[in-house]
Amino acid sequence: MRFATIGAVSFPEIEHDAPRYVRASRLLRLFNLSIAVLLIALLGAAYWYAWRPLPQTSGQINAPISADARIARDAKGVPHIQAASWEDAIFLQGYAMAQDRLWQMDGLRRRAAGELAEIVGHAALESDREARRMNLRPIAETQERSLVPQQRAVLAAFARGVNYFIETHRNRLPLEFTLLRYDPRPWAASDCLLAGLEMYRTLNNSWRGELLKQKMLETGERSKVEFLFPVRTGHEPQPGSNAWAVAGSRTATGKPILANDPHLEFSIPSPWYLVHLTAPGMNVTGATIIGLPGVIIGHNDRIAWGATNLQFDAEDLYREPAGAPVQVQQDAIPVKSASAIPITLGITPQGPLFLSDAGQQYALHWTASEPGGLTFPFLDIDRARNWTEFRAALEHYGGPGQNFVYADTDGNIGYQAAGRLPIGQTCAGAAPVEDASCDWQGFIPFDKLPSAYNPQAGMIVTANQNPFPADFAYQVDGNFAAPYRANQIRALLGSRQKWKAEDMLSVETDVYSAFDYFLAQQAVAAYDAQKPKPANPQMQEGVEVLRAWKGQMQKGLAAPMLASLIYDQIRRQMAERAATGLGNAYQNFMAPSVVERLLRERPAGWFPDYDALVLRCLTGALEAGQKIQGSRVSRWDYGQYVSLEIVNPVEGRLPLIGRFFDIGPVSMSGAGTTVKQYTRRLGPSLRMIVDLGDLEHSFANLATGESGQVLSSHYKDQWDAYYAGRSFPMQYGKIDAKDVLVVKPETVKPQP
């Protein structure tokens, strides 16, 4: 063998194997060339289908508006729209939202209308069936026709903006339309109401709880079942998601601070869209729900407002007797790559028909389907200058029922419950009623709804708790939250003076749970009372972990995981005692308060030995936790137990690369009873803090990002700050524009 020399290094020279070597080299070059071609093709496809549809945010376009306008976007992609009229501003809001979120908008209206299966297949069939049975599209179309002219004009201007984007971008729509192989139809004004109805349906779902309660009543002991479904606990602060306002007497500036962090299901993209609208007579910034124009929560130059779900019972189920009048409609649900699925719909005088698991038919009466049940007064709210004008706008708000919190630059704070809340008779709405004798008798007058203005305490707090006084003139039913969050917010706000706007983040992210701490102490006390002690080393370790804990539902700790598992055990056993076989089914916002009341009062007839109950549940919790994270309790991690993963519904399902478009799994802190309300399903979807002493010192951030397009730099650029409990300036008077899109009126060509 000879050697070839290159520099100072010698290599054996191939002689006899030269042909094989040449063939191998050619195959290697061919393989590398194939990889290069494939990479270029993938990059080309990514550019054409995902990069090219990204919105134009600078330069100039022409559009059908009345005068020159501009859309300036800040460092987080938030559009700051300046226009010559409110009509132009709303038009451009529709255009900008479509730039960032068109597929989400289309998916939302399809979900509400029962048309998702048409683009995603059988997986959405049950969702479509429920939406069709609830009659959402006909409701939206009927309510749109009944709006006052100005409200219709707002929705129409928004729809024109969305449609102008669709018309001018047919050849470069967002990636989802390519992946699902369809084009969006034009946006209608009623589609805005469909988007609103979908949120209405999310926030008003008490009918499911009514079916559960009815099922438990049929098989269980009535007094115990009623105990499990209270309307109030007796500990609600007045008045009563989180939103609060503190008066200037408690702030560093001497002017109010308002904070709001609505709790919704996690999603990517976010259900909220940040926007700033400026036009003659209007300068408002804040957040709106996807598919809706204007600003839903935010501030203008005079007032700020936030909202939380009121959770008043706005739905009733009626057990339909045989022979009741029913209007039968035949419909069909289109299914992608399959035949349409026929569906029979029934409409009664009370509402659409549902079939329960037990085969009983129920009619659903819902305020959203009542005349005036879905209105859109937010342009009036956005332009309100004081408390009087703000309340005057809310008087025309139909629903869903909300707690509105208010503050203004003059130093006032206020609270107003709003929405069309039905007046029930003697029939309780917490379970299905037998017949039309329980029909609603109109709606509670606006001036009778809970309201407060400049309360002596210098603070107003709402956290979905029952805000109605015990002696309220009308019957109160609702799926209200236990008061732990509201009580903790009040305690934190009252613990100091001289609050600054940025300090409110520490309240919004607080993870102390008075309930879980109470439960831990109950377990420790029950263990200490046992003589002799149970011969269970794991139980002893668990008790010591709970004994040292301070009630923080914090990731990295073992105690909050153990406390959560104990709660699951007690809730299940409590419900089993009330209705055998339904322990796992029992879910209710008030359940933590019910458990606490049971353990504090220890009423006879439930359990013969409550300490034994608690120890039995502690044992069950330890066994459950061992299966999840091993036998060493001290090494358990609550954050991993409640870890969060937010999946993109389309791109997140792509093989190999889909996970890059998702968030998580990540360890989380918080619980259903902490100010930072968190479950694996929902949490703070938006954080907003408004400083009425200096509006430039206000803050807002989404959980994910402003854009729904996966290759946008604003797709999830707010997540890290959200996760760490930080926020971003809410730019208002001083806009640090990173991109500016100038919009010129279209030139009308003269007719020949």
Structure description:
The protein is an alpha+beta fold. Helices cover 35% and strands 19% of the residues. The longest helix has 34 residues, at 18-51.
Concise synopsis of the structure shown:
By secondary structure, this protein is an alpha+beta fold. The protein contains 21 helices and 27 strands.
Structural class: alpha+beta
Care to count the β-strands? 27
Radius of gyration: 29 Å
State the end-to-end distance. 89 Å
> For the largest beta sheet, what order do the strands appear in spatially?
3-27-4-5-9-10-11-12-18-19-20
Helix content: 25-40%
Name the beta content range: 15-25%
For the sheet with most strands, the description reads: 11 strands, mixed
Helical stretch tally: 21
Average predicted confidence as pLDDT:
90
What global shape is seen? Answer: globular
Unreliable stretches = 1-16, 234-240
Write the layout of secondary structure elements.
Elements: E1 3-6, E2 9-12, H1 18-51, E3 59-63, E4 69-73, E5 79-82, H2 86-113, H3 117-120, H4 125-133, H5 136-146, H6 149-168, H7 175-180, H8 189-203, H9 206-219, H10 222-228, E6 242-246, E7 257-261, E8 263-265, E9 272-279, E10 282-289, E11 297-299, E12 303-309, E13 315-319, E14 327-335, E15 338-347, E16 353-355, E17 361-366, H11 378-382, H12 387-394, E18 402-408, E19 413-418, E20 451-453, E21 459-462, H13 484-493, H14 504-508, H15 514-529, H16 537-547, H17 559-578, H18 591-601, H19 610-629, H20 638-641, E22 644-646, E23 663-666, E24 682-684, E25 686-691, E26 699-702, H21 719-724, E27 739-745
Parallel strand pairs: 3-27, 5-9
Antiparallel strand pairs: 1-2, 4-5, 4-27, 6-7, 6-21, 7-25, 8-24, 9-10, 10-11, 11-12, 12-18, 13-17, 14-15, 16-17, 18-19, 19-20, 22-23, 25-26
Helix pairs in contact: 2-6, 2-8, 5-8, 6-8, 15-16, 15-17, 15-18, 15-19, 17-19
